[in-house]
Amino acid sequence: MNSRARVEAALKGAPVDRPPAGAWGHTYREEWSPEQLARVTVERQRRYGWDYVKFQPRASCFAEAFGARFQGSNHSLRSPKELEHPIHGHPDWPRLPGADASAPSLAEQVEALRLTVAQLGPEVPVLQTVFSPITVAGYLVGRDKRRAVRDLRKHPDEVLPALDRIATTLIDFSRRSVEAGAAGIFYAVSGYASEDLLSAEEYDRWLAPLDQRVLESLPEDAWFNVLHLCRGHLHFELARRLPVQAVSWAVQDPGGDGRPRAAHDALPGNPGGGHPRGAGGAQGDRGDRAPAGAGLLGSTGRAAGQPGGDDEGGGGVTRTVTGLAEIVLWTHDMERSLAFYRDLFGLELISPPEVPARFLSTGELSGGVPGMIVLSPHPDGAGGGFPTAKRERVLHHLAFKVAPDRYQELRGRCEAAGLEVRGGIHPVLKGVRTFYVDDPEGNEVEVIGPDV
């Protein structure tokens, strides 16, 4: 049984020699070149023998088509840097121009997919990644992707026409991708189909019709289409209504290991569901295509750009980061730095004396790994120094969380030590207090504590 036959059988619910498997993730340097992206994609498939390829274009490509600008990192593990975004306030949505898949950022992804399909051949299905309109919108508003949702709630008459123009572009991109050899699309709604961001009623009213429009516009040759949902508390019922053959979600998120089973049982063709159907291969009549929800694919990663998550992380691979383990700081005066972090802030020195750097524990993380501040002696010694202007420094600031009953005590100790203590308001967290001080090297240190 070859890879395509295995995938087709699995979508039908027919016996297979083993479950079809695939995995994916970003390679940020290669994503800026169609040839390099195709090369690394083919290398991964051949190395691991994946039965299908979820193509991984650069996550910013859709936003670039609408005027956002990003700069590549030239590093395989570092995501691109945003230089400019077109939406700064709700009045900008009506001014968002239309685009089509001939835009360079999108044409490059179609070409990369075409090169990949040409090398892998027809036996390995390749899915083109397509963001939903609201997911693209999240890349047009800057770092706070939730602002797209806030604008939609407050100004739907301005935002919805822009989302409709984005949907038109996605339809064009999807069709060109299928013409280039894609077996279908990996339709990434990301974190927006979640009770954490939008209620089911809100999603159905504003966004589900756009998803329906994109997916129903796919060519007949698109036989393997996956709906990707991530974040917790998902609206899995979307899978019943959208014309897809499989569903992908992040199993480690809240509800990811339980609610999908209830959703699976309610899908058409599954126990307790509606009418049976086939796998949706290359049939000639739309009525023969598989209805919504032909199967489920559990994903252990997040889609790129999901709100509140890993902005550029790829889906389908295990999310390995469970916490922040170390922040390493240069110091020109180890004793002064120890007096600040160990004596004033109370961090525990855990490294042996023979280790030149000083490791200080901030508390216990999962798996026995503590959070640590590491003070590393600077090669310039005591005679060196860092820029005093904040904009010239690499580190903006770091922050410690403290218990409510210790917040005021620590602030008093900082004041008694003669430090300049600056108050502040956290831009995101509610119900917290914050103050700021500078360490001996000029690094700004924030203290956050629950407001009592």
What report would you give on this structure?
With 452 residues, the chain is of the alpha/beta class. The chain folds into two domains: 3-299, TIM Barrel, CATH 3.20.20.210; 326-450, Roll (2,3-Dihydroxybiphenyl 1,2-Dioxygenase, domain 1). The protein is 30% helix and 17% strand. The protein has helices at 3-12, 34-48, 61-65, 104-120, 133-138, 147-154, 156-179, 200-206, 208-216, 238-241, 259-266, 334-344, 404-416, and strands spanning 53-54, 69-71, 81-84, 126-131, 184-190, 226-229, 246-250, 297-299, 326-331, 348-349, 358-364, 370-377, 398-401, 422-424, 432-438, 444-450. The strands form four sheets. A six-stranded parallel β-sheet has the order 1-4-5-6-7-8. It has a four-stranded mixed β-sheet with strand order 9-12-11-10, with helices on one face. It has a four-stranded mixed β-sheet with strand order 13-16-15-14, with helices on one face. α2 (34-48) packs parallel to α4. It is globular and about 75 Å long.
Whole-number radius of gyration? 25 Å
- Percentage of residues in DSSP E strands: 15-25%
Work out the oligomeric state of the chains in this entry. Answer: single chain
Major beta sheet, specifics? 6 strands, parallel
Return the CATH class of the largest domain: Alpha Beta
Structural class of the secondary structure composition?
alpha/beta
| Shape-level CATH architecture of the largest domain | Alpha-Beta Barrel
Shape: globular
Mean pLDDT: 84
